[in-house]
Amino acid sequence: MLISFVSFGKEEVKEKGNSKEEIRKEIKEYIGHHLQDSHDFSIGSYTTDTGEHKYIGFPLPVILWDNGLKVFSSSKFHHGETVANIDGNYYKLYHSKIYKTDAEGTIHYDEAHHATNVKPLDLSITKSVFMIIITGILMFFLFRGLARSYGKNNGIAKGAGRFFEPIVLYIRDDIAISNIGEKHYKKYMPYLLTIFFFIWFLNIFGLTPLGVNVTGNIAVTLALAILTFLITNFSGKKDYWLHLFDPLGSSMPWYAKIPLYIILVPIELLGLIIKPFSLLIRLYANMQAGHIVLMSLIGLIFIFKNWLGGGLSFFLAFAISLIEVLVALLQAYIFTMLSALYFGFASEEHDHEHEHEIAH
Amino acid sequence: MEKLVEEFSLGLFIWQTVLFLALLFLLRKYAWKPILNAVNEREEGIKNALKSAEEARKEMQNLQADNERILNEARAERDGMLKEARQLKNSMIEDAKTEAKAEADKIVAQAQATIDSEKKAAIAELKNQVAELSVEIAEKMVRKELANKDKQLELVDSMLGDVTLN
Q: Could you tell me if B150 lies within 8 Å of chain A, comparing CB atoms?
């Protein structure tokens, strides 16, 4: 893995990297570029002697909804260098986003240097979508295999399932049952298991040289958090809503509750949103930060360009990547754990006095 | 925050939601349910096996206790029988002994009686014979003595001398 990390870095040194300032700027751009989604699957680029950019990887399909469905290969953009002409419409890739332009590909800016061109609805199979599909297929076959091995092997897991079965059991016993309770945990199990392995696998893929930063993408974490939010509130029982709108219950006469509730109920309602919001920000920020730190440390090797500093950066990058492996698991665990906790609150019946302070 | 909004891609969001939901439903149907069922079944199986093993152990203990009890009973019964037999034997011997003794005593007594009567008869006979003989002897002697007159007078004298008059 590490060797590939270094080869990652090699591309950064690509062109005319003589002055430190230029390398620094280039590394910064590279990291920024890496953190974003992209329309082609490239794991690196280099410059030929003639000064031409060559990319290692393959293009992905672009799907646009712009007065009709438009499907074409991202190779038409030439990594943002040219304008794609599709059915008489011109599109340009600019900062990983597709804009509708004129034939020359002019991008108009506002005062804050933001592009003001029309953005068609971009449903492309981007690098992230591609990785999500790959992960989904991998998970499907992995766990389908585990499920099948039980039948074939008298109820005992075989092969890779041996490794994943204890994790499944851990999620069931220590995340689902201990937070939701014996009575209701079953209906949440598929979601908890899927979300745990989905996040974990994508986190791990993010650490591979493929360099896909899927779980560090706000759109992905938002989608996951919204699902948790929806499941929590749609499975909310009477006690859950009662706690939300009448948190003090019968411990106080109604006239005493009114002034308190003017403050309390909005807080409770806000908490409803804050809980999933904290989920989405936590996962996004952790993964994003990990990638930035790791790539910056690798970038440092090319700034130092000597044995001491390079070695030090290498060692640090190595240490951080080990920590990142742990963080990958930890973030998946936290997301699943907190989702389970929220489901637990939602499906709890009676005994709702002790949960006034909900851990965020 | 502005950067986040700018970075946000609606397309990716839609794809993520759709793909994740598809994955969730597929996995739920083809993986999680069978896996959890299999694991539950296995756990139930283990629980049941443990329970039945425990039951078998208890049964075994009961059986062993039963065996022990039956053995003890049999042993006690055997001891009782032996004791009884011994007692019976002793009493029989005792009975036989007393009976034999009584019989012997009886025989001895009878013999004694016979002996006594025989003895008495013999003595009587002997007495008779002695008497007869004495009488004969006396007759002969008296005849001989009384052959001369002197002797007869002498006899009368001695006899008269014996008969002292008081």
A: no
